[in-house]
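Hi everyone, sorry if this is the wrong subforum. Our group has a chain we'd like a structural model of before ordering constructs, and none of us has done structure prediction before. Sequence below.
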Amino acid sequence: MPHWQTSRYLIDLARPQVMGIVNITPDSFSDGGHYAGTRAALAHCEALIKAGAHILDLGAESTRPGAQPLPQEQELDRLLPVLRMAVTLGVPVSVDTYKPGVMQSALDLGADIINDIWALRWVSSEDGLSGRDVVAAHPGCGVCLMHMHGNPQTMQVSPMEGDVVAPVRDFLAHAAQALVAQGVGKARICIDPGIGFGKTVAQNFSLLAQQAVLLETGFALLAGWSRKSSLGAVTGAAADDRVLASAVAAVLAVQNGACIVRVHDVKATVQALGVLSAMQAAT
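Answer:
Right subforum, don't worry. Here is the predicted structure as tokens:
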């Protein structure tokens, strides 16, 4: 998968792409409240780009385990002032949302990518519109389809059972092909196994170890290990002390075929991937 087609940019996937996380929320699991204001969020966007982020990922609703749904108007009030400026910063901008109305508003403002934990399955109770409808109607936006078992309120209370690798692959393949059937070009789609979204620690690491199985779908792969609780489980580190573990996980994901890594700690990740790239160039 050489490129990821988005609204304004054709992203080269021949080198790993670092997607910097911008949580415009008071309650995200590791940095909630740090960038909740528009000015702080924009400053963080600029800092991530300076640190080497290739893509920005803006989210205005926390989807940590146990998080409660946020009304659409409140999500838009948080998101749109930041997005309006972020699209002027010279890099692709992704919006992390599952609500079709938010997706449409974001795309209307120039967002390049929709990043959806529900893989476009969530349907608005107001107008019956789904995320798939919004993305399929857009002429060129990129989309990331993630696997989630259950929902944020229940996913870690009742995680998946047994071997998860094949079921996750099959779910993502079906979601992506359904979108292709609606006329969305394959180059616009990437997939995400949803580390931490309804899986046990062992299951998360099995998805990393057997990541090649996910590549059988033929779609570009995004990996989101940054500061996840599974890293804490194996290191004993608190969420804000998982920079090293997160960078290692990003390198392993890229070694195993991921094209994009979604991270909080951009500088450390870029440096770690630079070492990997140097080694690969020397072989």
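For your construct planning: DSSP finds ten helices and ten strands in the chain. The first strand starts at residue 3 and ends at 5.
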